[in-house]
Amino acid sequence: MNLIEFEKEFNTEEQCREYLFKLRWKDGYHCPRCQCDKAWQVSGVKYKCHNCGYQTSVIAGTIFQGTHKPLTLWFRAIWYVTSQKNGTSALNLQRILGLGSYETAWTWLHKLRRAMVRQGRDKLNGTVEVDEAFIGAPGKGGKRGRGAENKVLLAVAVEISDKKIGRIRIGVIDSASSENLHGFIETTIEKGSTIVTDGWRGYNGLTEKGYFQEIKKRKAEDEDTLLPHVHTIISLLKRWLLGTLQGSCSKEHIAYYLDEYTFRFNRRKSKSRGMLFYRLLQNAVQLQSTSYDDIISK
Ligand SMILES: [Zn+2]
User: What is the CA(56)–ligand 1 centre distance, in A?
Assistant: First the structure.
């Protein structure tokens, strides 16, 4: 789908609404209360059950719930966010869509980031490199390694197939303890996979948990060559945070930016941008809405 096709497909509120309707009720409409499959359209997004009279809306229980903006604008935001290879900043989105406030653009991007993680997504498998890294406010000559302060500690898992980088997962952890690292590994990587790590004791005991483990012994000072795939991901991630977001990503929200990065990275070879648009919308109709206040208070 190119921009011209997109404009044709989603030109009116009705077109957007119908598209959401099909995404939400793949097997046709079902009343959330009585499961009746017949409904009247009351107005705009609202439908009324033929049997029990219960009213529901096509945007209830989605990230669009409660929005005062047209769906056509939302669809344009999603199109823009998915068609840009590296994503966009809130300021840029505000300009592109002509949104009145920066806050709206910022909130929309955060809502969309939450929709970038599919519930119950597959775990990584095969051979997976795992390491931790600090990001954020890297001072020159700053201390590297496990004791650095004022930074966010990430756990990074990178699937390797045919010596190439496959899918990735990134999580925020508050320390490199074995509890945290094992927790990260168990939620992101299938049992039976081979975990490639350095000799950090936090990784001890993985075999007891059903994994194979390959430990790379540190020979030189150079950390970048020990687990090269993870280090590639970390430097790409840092560049992305600085480039697209101009480094304007606060500690409180970092996990959501990581979700966006992961979403983009894992679909980097996807030939069709339209597919990303579809995936994001598909998740968006399954997610409860979060308000600006919710996002801020977290
Ligand atoms: Zn009903």
Answer: 9
What's the CA-to-centroid distance between 43 and ligand 1, angstroms? 17
Instruction: Decide if pLDDT at 224 tops 70.
Output: no
| pLDDT tens string 53-93 | 999 888 888 899 888 899 999 999 999 999 888 889 999 99
Global confidence as pTM = 0.85
**What's the CA-to-centroid distance between 48 and ligand 1, angstroms?**
8
pLDDT over threshold 50, residue 140: no
- Per-residue model confidence (pLDDT) at position 142: 40
CA of 53 relative to ligand 1 center, distance in Å: 6
| Long-range pairs, 273-280, Cβ under 8 A, ≥24 | 273/1, 273/82, 273/83, 274/1, 274/6, 276/82, 276/83, 277/1, 277/6, 277/78, 277/79, 277/82, 277/83, 279/118, 280/78, 280/81, 280/82, 280/112, 280/115, 280/116
What is the CA(60)–ligand 1 centre distance, in A? 15
